[in-house]
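Students often ask what a holo structure prediction actually looks like on paper. The answer is less mysterious than it sounds. You provide the chain, you provide the ligand, and the output is a string of discrete structure tokens encoding the 3D arrangement of the protein together with pyridoxal-5'-phosphate.
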Amino acid sequence: MPLELTKIRNDFPILSQKVHNKPLVYFDNGATTQKPWEVINRITEYYKTENSNVHRGTHYLSQIATDHFENARKYISEFIGANNQRELIFTKGATESINLVATSMSDYINPDDEIIVTAMEHHSNMVPWQQLCLKRKANLKHLTIQPDGSLDLNELEELLTISTKLLAISHISNVLGTINPIKEIVRIAHKHNVPVLIDGAQAIAHIKVDVQDLDCDFYAFSAHKAYGPMGMGALFGKAEWLDRLSPYQFGGEMISTVSFNRTTFNEIPYKFEAGTPDVAGALGMEAGLRYIDKLGIDNIRKHEDDLLEYATAKVKEIEGVSVIGESKDKTAVLSLVIEGIHPFDLGTLLDQMGIAVRTGNHCAQPLMSCLNISGTLRASFGLYNTKDEVDIFIVGLKKAISMLV
Amino acid sequence: MPLELTKIRNDFPILSQKVHNKPLVYFDNGATTQKPWEVINRITEYYKTENSNVHRGTHYLSQIATDHFENARKYISEFIGANNQRELIFTKGATESINLVATSMSDYINPDDEIIVTAMEHHSNMVPWQQLCLKRKANLKHLTIQPDGSLDLNELEELLTISTKLLAISHISNVLGTINPIKEIVRIAHKHNVPVLIDGAQAIAHIKVDVQDLDCDFYAFSAHKAYGPMGMGALFGKAEWLDRLSPYQFGGEMISTVSFNRTTFNEIPYKFEAGTPDVAGALGMEAGLRYIDKLGIDNIRKHEDDLLEYATAKVKEIEGVSVIGESKDKTAVLSLVIEGIHPFDLGTLLDQMGIAVRTGNHCAQPLMSCLNISGTLRASFGLYNTKDEVDIFIVGLKKAISMLV
Amino acid sequence: MTIKEKAQSIVDEFSMFDDWMDKYSYLIELGKELPLIDEKYKNETHLISGCQSRVWLHAEDAKGIIRFTADSDAVITKGIISLLIKVLSGSTPNEIVNADFNFLDEIGLKSHLSPTRANGLVSMVKQMQLYARAFKIKLNN
Amino acid sequence: MTIKEKAQSIVDEFSMFDDWMDKYSYLIELGKELPLIDEKYKNETHLISGCQSRVWLHAEDAKGIIRFTADSDAVITKGIISLLIKVLSGSTPNEIVNADFNFLDEIGLKSHLSPTRANGLVSMVKQMQLYARAFKIKLNN
Ligand SMILES: Cc1ncc(COP(=O)(O)O)c(C=O)c1O
Ligand SMILES: Cc1ncc(COP(=O)(O)O)c(C=O)c1O
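The corresponding structure tokens follow.
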């Protein structure tokens, strides 16, 4: 079912904003998405009528807030196909989710063990493992990428050894748009008894995610890239893993009993949630995912694929443009470089035309080194973007190029 | 200047809420405070007109959001009297702020070193140190409390040794309301070259905080206990300390350069802020503190002291009631136990009367053990509470007691 | 009486009260009729977690029917567990496992039937059904 | 010409443009007039941090007045640093340290004058004043 874009765009107040007196064309969805009224209103409503600290409170507001908070956990865990809401931990975002696992796994990593990442990882799914390896004298290995921006699974088979303790890989690359074949990757890794953590930051709002089908051990994502609020995210972890890992922060609801000598910890998921949780954030995150579900993730995917295909064809007509990342399986992200022009110049001029794109290394410096480029201009799409906007972007791009050469 | 309570109460939409058909009397401010329109509207406004990922973005929204985010940092650092906004790190709350220091200090703690806490600490300022000591084979020592709920500074002098690596102490106890003489405590600790971390969770909204005057090395607090949003908090740290400590989470803006072999980190405060920050949270936090500043922290303190004095006198008239915590210097928190009655029963019946209090151990189990009680009923006041509400509470308490004995 | 009948009579009694005070007073009264747990069972093993107050619960198999005893340090909690015992005690494991708890809705305790509620009503119900299930397995062997 | 006069003449030129395109085209043109930094100075030491693009800046003391040279891999950045150099180069350390940057406001670059802006305008200004301060100390010794 095609998306009703006029209606949808009205759901997002910021989209009617003017920037430098031009209508805003927001193509920076890979960095963060805009928020529909449903999300904004849910947060407002919470603070107006339900706000309270959760768990252990005997009074009405506390009980209401706790119910809603736990219902959000349930909804979000079902949204990603998890089996049990105990497997969903609230964090402040994908980065914290990944760091949580890296910290809590620390005791399992011994000298000469190996952790595998890929050359396309965002710093958030690369540096935590690198630093863990440094600390534990383990080795960080990485899968290279092929010219089209995809991975070679044969290389994965070769990299996996009996010393491999974890494979950490993104579901979708934030630079290349590549959708990695996670199910197959997990199958291969599990054959070698290697658990797999998926960085789903760029996937959650764009393709169907089903952690049981993927069979991954951990799945990390942020609310703000899925039409929800900032400062909120989640980590899915298989209960068998979460039960085994030790907590990584201490205080609040994650504690069961304490004396000066000894502390016992609460069950999962609470074991990993220290301090007062962001209840408004959880409700906002739920509202964002419900919004996605209302439109239908497959409809969104189709729409964004169409935009990508359309935009890709158009930019390729422009002289000097190279598209970075042309994997068969990709979505929503269009990175490009233009011969002799610095992406920053393009971004600055496009901004003057009301067009928001991102330029730079996109927190993926190792990937830039592999590709031997210093950065790209990235247009990344969301469910509210239109072909008309792509046209504006193309016209703007040509105008910017003509000013810069 | 006395607070204009009618006007103030209108600023907080939730206060006109009915609970069980009774007007809400919200005395659970120690757990979390309610939010004024200023805060709610600031968040809404952000998502409606400014939302973007911050730093490194070339486009308008990103630059606006970055400016506002960094202005919030500046405002908040000035609110607590910090010297330089670089000394203010955004976290998700007091608990994370404390855990950040505990994790990043880990390398400085050696076997047989000592960390000192007090018997009145919230779990969030006790368990992170306990676990750090366990991990590094160091010793956790604690200051006991005197019958009135205050500390004995002579005991502190005795506890400090050349092995002491840190003193972690709350500014105000969340159970007893005791205001600890931080300035004097820091002076004593510094005499022994011991840095001091202050848990300011219960102080920030109730008394004037000036980290330069206190001369503390770290100060942790949460937005949600200071009329701001959930999921947001801050850590003040002296630059000399923050520069020395290693980062505790990795990814995003905290990185300067990365290759597969090596990562260099950004400067403070960014070094400690991994992942997309909660921009809306920072703006909401700023709005909450601006609200406090608008009314005047000294006026708030005076008002809350009056409420406390009034309520304390009234509860003491009730047979069987003991007030827990009667330090000379205390504010905003009234804990009590009633002979032969379980706090949970009281809390449940008060809830039926629309009165929200907290019952239990208040995440301070070691304190409960010291006091030899299993929990208290805690009424904690905010700037919008009134003497009329105290009267309702007193009537309710008497009614509840009559039902329970 | 069947569980259903016992539940209905409790619903009838509660329906006479029109304010919460009477309802809670009645709950507190119910607590006083609680068949008390033997002191020796008041230990960790019999403690139900998830309540703000402590609740100890024990179950005995008396020739195919179950008898519950309990205690709590809070009187409202005592009333709640007493109410549950009034309805469930004296039934077969099978009846308890299949019991319908809608009556909690009718007496206005439904809002307490969330796993996160501090009163632990859900934990109590779960624990009682767990006992029943255990006895059922024993009976079938 | 004093710094003030040079700034005013830039403001005058900019005031002729009424749309952003002309303004940016002019900035880009300015970049082409940039006194280029010697290749040997294009290193880490001369790199200004805080810009999305790379900017190298060098300063020389020519008998009490400062001459700046620079380069950047982005042409707009080049224009910005060129503009700054046009205004500041050829003045004494003292004049540079005390310079008033309000003209940036008048030409509509003020909104770029925030430390967090990706174009690094603030870092450039800071770096130039840093050089001036260093030379000033040298002169006074
Ligand atoms: C692939 C990928 N992983 C991780 C992250 C980090 O997400 P967050 O900054 O929300 O923690 C991002 C977002 O920038 C991303 O694109
Ligand atoms: C004294 C004290 N410290 C720390 C905390 C933890 O604060 P938060 O849960 O916001 O991280 C609290 C709040 O419960 C507190 O009262």
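The mean pLDDT of chain D is 88.
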